[in-house]
Amino acid sequence: MLKWILILSASAALVSHGRAATQAQCSELLRRGLEDKNPETRKQAVVALSLAGQSGPLFARLEEMLRDKDVEVRQAVVVSLAEVKNKSATAALHKALEDEVPEVSFTAAKALWARNDPAGKQALLAILAGESKTSSSFFSKQKREALRMMHTPRTTFLFAVRQGARFAPVPGLGAGIASMQSILTDSEVPGRASAALLLGNDKDPAVLDALKDALSDKDWSVRAAAVHSLSLRNDPALKKELEPLLQDDKEAVRMRAAAGYLRLSAIQAGLGTRKRRS
Fold it and tell me: What percent of the chain has pLDDT over 70?
């Protein structure tokens, strides 16, 4: 009997060590992504973090990324921060309002307006006033883009996904809007990736099997979409499905797999804490 107790204890210790090692691997992968010289890599790390928890040290680094030299990285940071409903994120969005690049400050204004922050409304009114007085080139560009997007099927589809996906909210975890938006706004994304995002929350076992199969799809965007949807199912049992994708040859997939793994680990830890309390 003692022999089996020792064996089980050793096995549990190995599993715990393996889980900790994998979480450390995920954190390191994302940390390296945030510090990479390639701005596209940094952007992918930032949008992937919209899948992870809001309390982790990596998510806390988003505010630092507002000082990134690349405009698209800073804009991605604002989109990810928009999902975080706390004082620190709001303060960071206020800071982004002062960005010298209009695209970044405008994104921050919309994010603040969406959370009913007076600064967001004031910023939008200032932009509107500029348009009526001087035909601001910035606002004219934004207006043209907005009108074009209204007639773009992909943008309409994105709106439908955001409104209709209805992923179950989890306190402290984002809805991955930045991750989803980054996938859908790629002009070469195939319909399979869009389907993976739309069907992500469907409880049919056949859909789950299809998403698992999509993890090995030859198209990176389909794999990324499958990782995204599986992560948002908030089922820790799916961690093992994401683990192989940490070695994917496409960084957009690796980053999402790492963030998704950390998300599911946080959920698993929360479930364990509740069980011990009960």
Answer: 71
Contact 264, 235 (CB under 8 A): yes
pLDDT in tens, 89-121: 899 999 998 888 788 888 898 899 888 899 988
141 within a domain of the structure (yes/no): yes
What pTM did the predictor assign? 0.63
Residues 6+ apart with CB under 8 A from 31: 58
The amino acid at residue 160 is: A
Residue 2 lies in a domain: no
For the chain, where are the alpha helices, taking DSSP H only? 2-35, 39-48, 57-60, 62-65, 71-81, 87-96, 102-114, 118-134, 137-150, 153-164, 177-184, 191-198, 205-214, 220-231, 239-242, 251-277
Distance CA 2, CA 223 (A): 46
For residue 85, the domain's CATH number is 1.25.10.10
Long-range residue pairs from 184-190, CB within 8 A, at least 24 positions apart, any chain: 184/154, 184/157, 184/158, 185/154, 185/158, 186/221, 187/154, 188/221, 189/221, 190/219, 190/221, 190/222
| Ranges 54-68, 176-190, 227-241, most confident | 227-241
pLDDT band at 239 (very low <50, low <70, confident <90, very high): very high
- Closest C-alpha to 48, from 33, 63, 68: 33
Total domains present in the chain: 2
